[in-house]
Amino acid sequence: MTDSTGSYEINVPPDDSIYFSYLGRATVRYPVKDINTLNNFDIALHVDPTELKEVSVMPRDYRGDSLQNRKDYEKYFNFKKPNPFTLNSGSSGLGMGAGFDVDQIIRYFQFDRTRRLLAFQRRLEEDEQDKYIDHRFNPSMVLRVTHLQGDELDSFMMKYRPSYTFCVRATDYDLMEYTKLAFTEYQKDRKDR
Predict the structure, then answer these.
(1) Closest by Cα among 15, 20, 127, 117 to 70
(2) What pLDDT, on the 0 to 100 scale, is given for residue 45?
């Protein structure tokens, strides 16, 4: 072990040898009798840095991400509360006879499962709406309009985050105008403090 200055002390017999290693990279063995300066023996280990392959970071594609998310969770996005009174028109599909769908009746009484699936469906829809707001009301657009940066930008975006309904209906011009008005109010609030 070395001390805080990197100095170390090793007691070895004169007929022995020493070597050093770091992460499996060993040096040659040094016979103790061949070391001229025992009190000042320095050793350095050469470690080649690992080179990683180049990584390309692509900008987020809201539409692609949203479509993929809808595809991945299709079963949950399309979930409907079971209805035991749905009529089943026979297995042939020719309308020969009518009956109740037994699977629907069983699912109707699985209240916990239905509640969990509906809650998950709502969460998926809320996440999709949040991502849409983030796509429209993004830091680069707000920075262009307000020239805020860092924590001030984050604080402004959190306080004046528009609703999903507004973002769906607003044009780019409407969104920039909203940001300008919100920034005017933000500046006024800062002066009042």
Answers:
(1) 127
(2) 67
